[in-house]
Amino acid sequence: MGNCSHVKKREVVIYIFFALIAFCKGLGLSSSSKIYIIMYIFGIIMVFLKISTEKYTYKELIPILILFLIGIVDLIFGGVTTVLFTAISLCCLKDINIKQIVKIMLFARMISFLLLILLSTTGIVENNVILHYRNGVGFINRYSLGYEHPNLAHSSFSIIVILFGYLYYRKINLFYVFLIEILNYILYSFTVSRTGFMIISIYLIFLLVVKNIKFIRENITKIINVLFIFFIFISFVLAWGYGKIPFFETLNSLLTGRINYMSQLLNNYSVPLIGRESYGNILFDNGYFSILYEGGLLASIWYFYYNFKANKYIKQHKLIPEALLSIFFMFYCIFESYYMNILMNPCLFFITYVIFTNRNEKNLQ
Description:
With 365 residues, this protein is mainly alpha-helical. 67% of the residues lie in helices and 3% in strands. It has 16 helices and 2 strands. A two-stranded antiparallel sheet has the order 1-2. It is globular, with a radius of gyration of 20 Å.
């Protein structure tokens, strides 16, 4: 009984950590925030506590230690914290219920999202208004709703919707889709974030198609790694073709300059062995370019290899909700730099299924 109580207390600490860090992310706090740094330090302390009380096999420790070393090198020489934080998070997740973690993160994000909107609309937190020129429309007002930028407000809602779809996949029907799309449009009327609005709309259609077409539902897990490679390939094609193919310039305008930044990276920088944070004025809005250039080649190899193995595991066990989440986030990473951050890319949680040999059955329930 005492040992069981100890295990439960240890799990509660992990759940509290992910709730707090997801809440911070839901508020739009960056790695430079003092609150975020405090949570980061708390995570490091928790890892040592976890390691001291958890039994790991040699096979389990090797991939985690490799990622730890890459993360430490990235932090020291490149100022990049994300890889190390992902290593910390993964290390804590041995024998932890992954769906419970995702559920906690969902509700923490929902609370922080609603809180920030409430505070911004009541004037307690500044609701920045950005005057933005859009072709064919003219100047428009975009509201940040308490976030640093209107796009962040909509992307925060996007992640909430995607996590909700994963956890409650079996309950999703036309009513939920219609309700979420109405909320999506209402939010768009303030943020005017075309990418955020488009992502949610595509995701809702994707959910309905998979749920209602048996052939797709039964075969969706079989193509997960094919799509993974395809989305990476598409990212490079877009970057290579910008300036050569006229349609890509139109697409770049619709995506507010994302393809242009990718093209600048591809044409002016080689992929570093060790990642670095700054590339002049280039913004990272593609997850695959972000892991390659900010994370570095070593981190990219680790991520791609274990992501590929996790996808294979999902295929073997025919985990449809996990496949939907993974496929859509792999698609989403063409437009946002979320790939290497475990708090923004929950698909990385599935790596625990192939790293830790003594998985709890509850992880698959």
